[in-house]
Amino acid sequence: MQVKKYFPPIWLLKTFVHVFSLLPLINLYWLAFIDELGADPVKEVIHFTGIGALNLFLLSLTISPLAKFLKQGKLINLRRVVGLYAFFYAVLHVLNFLFFEVQFDFNLFIDEIFDRPYITIGMVALLILSALAITSINNIRRKMGKGWQKLHNLTYLAGILIVTHFYWSVKSELSSPLMYIAVLIFLLYLRRDKFRRWL
Amino acid sequence: MLIKTPAKSALTENSVTDENVYTDRRSLLKKMGFLGAGTLLASSANAKGFDLFSSDEEAEAFKTKAIKYSPAKNTMKGEVLTPETKVISHNNFYEFGTKKSDPINNAQAFKVNPWTLKISGEVNKPFTLDYDDLFNKYTIEERIYRLRCVETWSMVIPWLGFSLSKIIKQADPTSKAKYVAFETLHDPEQMPGQRSRRVGGGIDYPYVEGLRMDEAMNPLTLMSVGLYGKTLPAQNGAPIRLVVPWKYGFKSIKSIVGIRLVEKMPPTTWNILAPSEYGFYANVNPAVDHPRWSQASERKITSGGLFSRNRIDTLPFNGYGEEVADMYKNMDLRKNY
Q1: pTM value?
Q2: What is the value of ipTM here, to two decimals?
């Protein structure tokens, strides 16, 4: 007799994703607003949303290998919502920089994007994420046919750009970016068969 | 007293503090004390949770005490002091961790008494100062200085201390003394960042810094032993640190045990780590960018939270040009960044 193992329904998992993505943001901006987020709330919100975007991005890359490993195909349904939250955090990351760091000095904002290579590649990664987010709408996805998968393979390039952006931005404390790089390499390694087919 | 005429760039505590805050300062200080105690309680409670296997010894908070000083005399309008709670909780002191909040969390057990500061090298009268000497040997003055970090944030801090020149004169430099080399305490037992490269941000310790002789003798160059009326908290570089207000913050080396007068330009920690990004001089200069970010403006850390509009233009020599620009008049500051 085969015992059917319990697996939580997707709607429940999606609810978890919503709650655990949104609650920390509410908490973050509230504390920053009342000046209870360390001495420099601006740095905190920039770093929190940046690291948050990277965490969610790597989580979205973990879902399909995990679905295979657990033999739970329906887990794939979570990929979009997690990916979209990664995009949302990344947008906030940039808006925090514009609103609170350079404080609407648009000339400085544009100069920094083009003059600082680590910011440039961060912005390229955000452009890729934007394209992926827009094309995640079902109607557009259907219209794109096979092109959709091709476009979404840019995810891997975005991943490399994002961890490089992080590595390049720190002063000397490299251990944390190196850890993220290791995780990304592992997630790409799990997809080695796919990459081999491209060659 | 070395500074007699009020310089245009100088600040005093009462001119730079909001009047309401100033008149209400005692009750505010009390509140801050309350907050400080509460924070410490919270952190020691946390530490207990982790410390399942250690002895039941209570982690004691680092103690500061009030010191006597002559108040700052000079005035400049339009500057607001960075609140004390922020000055003591937002620190770059990688010996205690690389996050800004690491030093206040990890430095509470730091032992500064006994302390020995040794003045040596190209001098006729080398000498040492012990812990009590730091507070009793020289007249302690209050100096309100801007502090500009190379990471583009800044603060305005009421330091207590005395001019470095007093120490140097007392040691009677020889004609070979062209530079001054400073060294931070090396004590991996007490400083987690010196035990682990990961915690310490990959720096080779001890932290070392240096100044040219004329920079060291400039009246602005301060040996600080306190801030906000009390001895320095551990995380701010207790018991004695350098403050060079016209240079980026990393020049202002903390917890100093050695001052050596030398003939050749001494090595400096950040320059060793990334020579293309951090020079020996490190004068605040809005015209010369850090390779990875602009130095033209800065965010001044005050109170007010996320929405405070605190971005200001960075001034050449951090606003101290009148006092220091002459020392660099024949130098290409683009090359000597």
Answers
A1: 0.83
A2: 0.83
